[in-house]
Each structure stands twice: as C-alpha cells, then as structure tokens.
C-alpha cells in the first residue's frame, strides 16, 4: 500500500486519532442543538437504504447527513495543500489530474457518483439549488492524490460541482480501493454556494458515503484491486471507526455492474 490514511496519520497531520475528538464535540453540539427535533428525525431520504425505516417521518423536518471527519487528506487547505482555489477544480470528470499536476489518470472500475442535496428543515423535500459539493477519495491502490507516496504530484479523484435545480451533482470517477482499517468510502463537503467552495470557506456539512459489501466484493474481483480483497476481508461496516455508529443514511444506493461501471446515489440532507 502506498501512503498513509485516516487511521495511519501522515507526519503533517493528526489523522483519525486527532479528528475523532473534534468530531465527537461537533456531534454533541449538534445533538444538543437539535434535541427538540428528535421526534422528526426518522425519515429516510430517497437514494439511501435503511434496515428499519420509521413510519414517524414528518414533512416538518428530517435528520441532516451525519457529520464525519474529513480525514488527514482533504486538500481543502485545512491540512496542507488547498486544491479548491485552483482553476479547473470545478469539473464533473475527476478521473484525471489537471492544472500543473503530473497529468495522471486514475484507473479502475468506472463509478458515477450522484449526490442530491436537500433541505433537512423542509423534510428533505426541497432541493438545495446553487449549493456546491466537493468530493474526494482514494484510488484503486488506496492512495490519496496530493498526499500519498507516489501520487503527491497528482490531483485526480477530487472535484467540485454546483447543484442543479434538483439539488444534484454528478461526478465521473472510479471505484475506490479498500485500504487497511477503513471501509470503502467517498469523502464530501457541502458548501452554501460555488463561490464558497472555490474560496474554501463556510463548509456547511462534512460527511462520507459508504458502499454496500456485495458491490465491493464484485468490484474487488476485477483486475487491479488485489490488495482490496485482503483488506476488506478483515473489515465490516459495523466495526468501521466512522460508520459503526450508524450508516443507513450514508450507504449509497447502487446500480450497474463491473463491466459497464456502477452508479452510487445518495441523498444528502443539510
């Protein structure tokens, strides 16, 4: 495996061991602030899955996407390099590096990521048009561009999109690998506007998308994902350091296959 990851902090960052205490404080603040909304948080947004959907969902409100750590490799200026201010970061195809990078392309099983940002206060029924989403994830080998050994000169698998009238953003990517200690995932940050995103300011939500196990098994049988098979075998969503406290609202709805690629869809209430 190349580089370091959420559970293996780089020399210049605290990694997950540093981020989790901060995250815990953020969650406590959110829980205290939203205590009066507890009877209303049972709704399950379209595009996610739930093992026990609630019948008590209300149009008056629904739960925001769970707040998660951005990890040590965000590329948003909070831990070293700031990619968000670079010309070219606003793009839908994130498989290639851009600008002054080394110009590489991330190889792997094709993946389309579709996130639908909605207003939680309206019961997830109102799309957030004109918001912006920054996504990033590791490559097939489990390495993060800009940070991991061997790909510090690349900036692929990172990009920003503005939400359309339906609150949607779509990215063309590849299915990420599975590295030791973490369930396969995609990081994302939500901003109030494209201007905020490209100025790397005023993040409204930070979270992660998880992949279903059966899809991971199918993808990792493809060429180039050999290490992921071994790494995934020792992991579970229930034991993952991020998703173990509940992943129903972060588990992507998947369509497609390894031959033509997959689409991962998730609704993101903010």
Describe the structure.
With 270 residues, the protein is of the alpha+beta class. Strands 1, 2, 5, 8 and 9 form a five-stranded mixed beta sheet that branches. Strands 4-3-6-7 form a four-stranded antiparallel beta sheet. Strand 8 and strand 9 form a beta hairpin. The longest helix is centred in the first third of the chain and has 19 residues. The protein starts with 14 loop residues before the first helix and ends with a strand. The N terminus is likely disordered.
Q: What's the SSE blueprint?
A:
Blueprint: H1 15-33, E1 110-119, E2 126-127, E3 132-136, E4 158-162, E5 168-174, E6 185-191, H2 194-198, E7 203-210, H3 213-219, H4 226-233, E8 253-257, E9 261-269
Parallel strand pairs: 1-9
Antiparallel strand pairs: 1-2, 1-5, 3-4, 3-6, 6-7, 8-9
Any key phrases for this structure?
five-stranded mixed beta sheet; alpha+beta; single chain; 21% strand
Structural class: alpha+beta
Question: How would a crystallographer describe the biggest sheet?
Answer: 5 strands, mixed
User: Tell me, what's the shape?
Assistant: globular
* Topology order in helix (H) and strand (E) letters: HEEEEEEHEHHEE
Please count the helical segments.
Answer: 4
| Residue fraction in strands | 15-25%
Q: Poorly predicted ranges (pLDDT <50, ≥5 residues)?
A: 1-60
Mean pLDDT: 83
Helix content: 10-25%
Cα(first) to Cα(last) distance is 35 Å
Topology, number of strands? 9
Radius of gyration: 17 Å
In a nutshell, what does this entry contain?
By secondary structure, the protein is α+β, with helices and mostly antiparallel strands.
